């Protein structure tokens, strides 16, 4: 399988570049791990899958056996807060990846209790992929198209992310529709950022500068980024966080875009931090909210 080929390229007795997890090879039968949820009264708090039991199957190029790479739970003991282990993040991009860079830098400086372990790009030559390679991060192309023959299938994408023990998927300017296979494999674990206050100016074809031009043409007085959970459609998943940006009377699309992008960078890091610290709470009516770290009795 293509996923196994990719993983055999990533896996060895040495760590994945820039990952803070230690890996070692073990020949044994795989064990399963599942997503768990902790429910308390009227709230449901998201909990990540156990990281210490997941195995990555890798083809050993020097032996006939199939090796399995397992994560040592001890390697996480120094990277936890209050018993919450560091999370593994997959980021998807189609362009320059400025939000991806902000998230990656926040992981490296300790602001986020997590690590970007793989970059998924819709094309080989985008700026986000170039940045990832420069930082020694694995890059996967998805989907496979005539223009991108090295891309992989939805099934292999899911298998690869599971093999790398990814906890959360973050879309950061990824313009392709997410396949249902990935949504089913990562329920309420995929986030997207959109450059308008959804549900306004969302949906298929509304991205990038097109959004800002539409906002200005509409006469809207406010805009700003929205972070939402991903479902089977464009920009229709549950809204998690928003930040308001004033639309000025003589704004150009470029000027508005620059102000919104600054807020995107800050908001996505803030939300990813909350996600990795397991502070995303689901109300009884299905609306996700964020619990304050400083005051757990407050939500946003």
UniProtKB/TrEMBL annotation:
The protein's Enzyme Commission number: 2.1.2.2
Annotated Gene Ontology cellular component terms: chloroplast
One of the GO biological process terms: 'de novo' IMP biosynthetic process
Subcellular localization(s) per the UniProt record: Plastid, Chloroplast
Formyl transferase N-terminal domain boundaries: 87-272
Catalytic reactions on record: N(1)-(5-phospho-beta-D-ribosyl)glycinamide + (6R)-10-formyltetrahydrofolate = N(2)-formyl-N(1)-(5-phospho-beta-D-ribosyl)glycinamide + (6S)-5,6,7,8-tetrahydrofolate + H(+)
Alphabetized UniProt keyword annotations: Chloroplast, Plastid, Purine biosynthesis, Transferase, Transit peptide
KW Protein transport (keyword) present: no
Superkingdom, natural source: Eukaryota
Enzyme class: transferase
Pathways involved: Purine metabolism; IMP biosynthesis via de novo pathway; N(2)-formyl-N(1)-(5-phospho-D-ribosyl)glycinamide from N(1)-(5-phospho-D-ribosyl)glycinamide (10-formyl THF route): step 1/1
GO function terms (MF aspect): phosphoribosylglycinamide formyltransferase activity
Principal subcellular localisation of the protein: plastid
InterPro entries: Formyl_transf_N, Formyl_transf_N_sf, GART, GART_AS
Family affiliation: Belongs to the GART family.
HAMAP family noted in UniProt: PurN
Protein name per UniProt: Phosphoribosylglycinamide formyltransferase, chloroplastic
Organism expressing this protein natively: Malus domestica (Apple)
The organism's taxonomic lineage, starting at the top: Eukaryota, Viridiplantae, Streptophyta, Embryophyta, Tracheophyta
């Amino acid at each position: 399988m293509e996923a196994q080929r990719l993983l055999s390229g990533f896996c060895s007795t040495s760590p994945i570049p820039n990952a803070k997890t230690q890996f070692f090879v073990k020949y044994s039968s795989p064990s399963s791990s599942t997503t768990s949820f902790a429910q308390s009264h009227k709230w449901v708090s998201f909990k990540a899958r156990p990281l210490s039991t997941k195995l990555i199957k890798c083809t050993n190029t020097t032996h006939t056996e199939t090796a399995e790479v397992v994560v040592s739970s001890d390697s996480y003991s120094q990277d936890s807060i209050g018993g919450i282990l560091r999370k593994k993040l997959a980021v998807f991009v189609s362009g320059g990846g400025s939000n991806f860079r902000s998230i990656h830098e926040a992981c490296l400086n300790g602001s986020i209790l997590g690590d970007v372990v793989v970059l998924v790009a819709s094309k080989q030559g985008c700026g986000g992929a170039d940045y990832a390679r420069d930082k020694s991060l694995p890059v996967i192309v998805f989907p496979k198209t005539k223009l991108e023959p090295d891309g992989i299938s939805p099934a292999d994408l899911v298998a690869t992310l599971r093999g790398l023990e990814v906890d959360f998927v973050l879309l950061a300017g990824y313009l392709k529709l997410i396949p249902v296979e990935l949504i089913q494999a990562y329920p309420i674990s995929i986030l997207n950022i959109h450059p308008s206050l959804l549900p306004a100016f969302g949906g298929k074809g509304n991205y990038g500068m097109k959004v800002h031009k539409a906002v200005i043409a509409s006469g809207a007085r406010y805009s700003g980024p929205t972070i939402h959970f991903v479902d089977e459609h464009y920009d229709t998943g549950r809204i998690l966080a928003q930040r308001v940006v004033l639309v000025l009377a003589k704004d150009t699309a470029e000027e508005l875009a620059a102000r919104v992008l600054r807020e995107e960078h800050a908001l996505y890091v803030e939300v990813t931090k909350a996600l990795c610290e397991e502070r995303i709470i689901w109300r009884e009516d299905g609306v996700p909210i964020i619990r304050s770290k400083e005051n757990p009795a407050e939500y946003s």
